Amino acid sequence: MSSQPLSQNQERFELNLGPQHPATHGVLRVKLLMDGEYIVDAEPVLGYIHRMHELMGENRSWAQYLPNMGRLDYLSALSYNLGYVELVEKMAGIEVPERAEYIRVITTEMNRISSHLLWFGAFVLDLGGFTPLLYAFDDREQILDLLEAVTGSRLTYCYYLFGGCYNDVEDDFLSGCLAFVKRLRTRLPMYHNLVTKNVILRQRLEGVGPVSAEMCRKYGATGPVLRGSGINYDLRKNEPYSIYPELDFDVPVYPEGDSMARFMVRMDEMEQCLRIIEQAIAKIPEGPVMAEKVPKMIKPAAGDYYHAVEAARGTFAIRAVSDGANQAYRMKLRSPTFSNLSLFQEASRGMLLADGLAFMGSLDLVIPEIDR
Amino acid sequence: MNKENVIQELQALAAEGMADQPEVASVAAVAGPAGEEEAKPQTAIPPEPRRNGVLEVDYAVRGVHVDVQIQGDQVVRAAQILDEAGMTLEAITGVDWINDQELEVVYDYSYTGGSCFRVVVRARISRHEPTIPTVSGVFPGANWHERETFDFFGIHFEGHPQLEYLLLPEDCDFHPLLKDFKGC
Questions:
Q1: A255-288 in b/e burial notation, b at 16+ Cβ within 10 A?
Q2: Per-residue pLDDT for chain B (184 aa), expressed as one digit of tens each?
Q3: How high is the ipTM of this complex?
Q4: Secondary-structure percent of chain A, ordered helix, strand, coil, rounded to 5
Q5: Which of A114, A128, A329, B163 has the greatest count of CB atoms below 10 A from its CB?
């Protein structure tokens, strides 16, 4: 810590937040220039768990790259699985059976809820409330058990294959999902009573960390951050993929742009996920879960391809360049929290340090996905 | 946002770039947009390799609506056109075309205000002297994307406020996504 006096009463000093700090939820370092309790400048320093996933994409085959997708955003890994298999299916012209599409949507949305639940618990923990974390983990555990039964893993899923899913789901899974939907519908009102209506939480979040729609646009922020700034933009609606157009759900949008708005967007999104899961289970057809003719060696036509999906934190996109070989010539991964965090420096100027942490929590950072 | 206007403005910009390069423009006028470097086995961007121009491509296959290729020094003007149209810069990246001794800088733009519209802007620069102006003055979000591209490809973004390593360690001396990178 170095300090340089500015005036008689003022003294600015540098402060390192992280890289090993519980509030950053991972190895993120923020170089802060402080004026007393106020943030003058906050520069995030990235790269502590950089693994060069993009280079890995160039030196293994399309199929061998599948497990990498579970290791970007480990909290909503299935959205990343989905984005990647849909891209390769688009490149290679593989048709996916309808049942597989429904399974993909059900499992992805379950994963989205588990991601939001973990964010909910950890975020309130950041603000000083320990109890909600335990409740949230109780619910999340149900999802992990259900997903473990079909995917074989609890966190770093690698369940979708080009042309379908690794295996079919059983009726136990579907009835388990319905039971979970019922359960969470009774729990969410409790969360709202316990947390959302809590006056301390509201004072910590309301009006804190305002992010305008224009700032989101300039920085490329997406997901709940953008929807908390009043922009109705959700790729499941705006750029429909899979079977989302056949399902009826709303996109929660809050215009305030503060941390409370982002909190409410995610809380409401969980309810919408429940609606999606319920409808998908009611509609799921019988049939195969894998396309019949999927080539073992995938050799897409040369050219470049782009595909984006709505992950739990915003737009996850892949730009793949193929030269006709069994592996990518270039694999660019565009991760949502990279862009969402990039506005932190500008938006946090003049904030109290404690508010800065609340603001950072409301951005819902997952560091392995930023660092890639 | 009027998509047709945006496409027209980008077409005018790309045409300007072709005029800057008389030898390419004259070839293009006779032989179509193929240009002088036809022998590019790896760069088969449909329908054929090109030096400049605006293509409206098949969104269902490629995932973008408009594919713009311009000169390196025009990327800021392209960013301004797309900024005025209300579009967002989604990502910046590079591609190393080592057989052509060129680096490609790729800008992905999307529209978050309504119906889906995606534009990709690409510019090719020399691999030996990879410099291109920064667009971080137009889109502050480009700051990190450009730093990342600098990390991976060593592309120098002129006028960037803080062109330092972002994801790689600050003392590293390699650019891992260059095709001649052999590990460290």
A1: ebbbbbbbbbbbbbbbebbbebbbbbbeebeeee
A2: 777 788 878 877 877 776 655 444 333 333 334 444 444 444 444 444 456 687 777 888 888 888 888 888 888 988 988 888 889 999 999 998 888 888 999 999 999 888 888 889 988 888 888 899 999 889 998 999 999 999 899 899 988 888 888 888 888 888 888 888 887 5
A3: 0.85
A4: 50, 15, 35
A5: A114
CATH class of B3-27+53-158: alpha beta
Whether A68 and A54 have beta carbons less than 8 Å apart is answered as: no
Q: Give the containing element (helix H, strand E) for A332.
A: strand A330-334
What's the predicted TM-score (pTM) here? Answer: 0.85
- Cα–Cα distance, A31 to B60 (Å, whole number): 43
Q: Which residue has the tokens 């369940």?
A: A159
Which tokens is A20 given? 């090993």
Nearest to A54 among B106, B110, B177 (CB): B177
Name which CATH class applies to A11-371.
Answer: mainly alpha
Contacts of B167 in chain A (CB under 8 A): 46-47, 50, 371-372
Calculate the alpha carbon distances from A240 to A188, A245, A247, A337 in Å.
28, 6, 11, 21
Check A372 against B165: CB less than 8 A apart: no
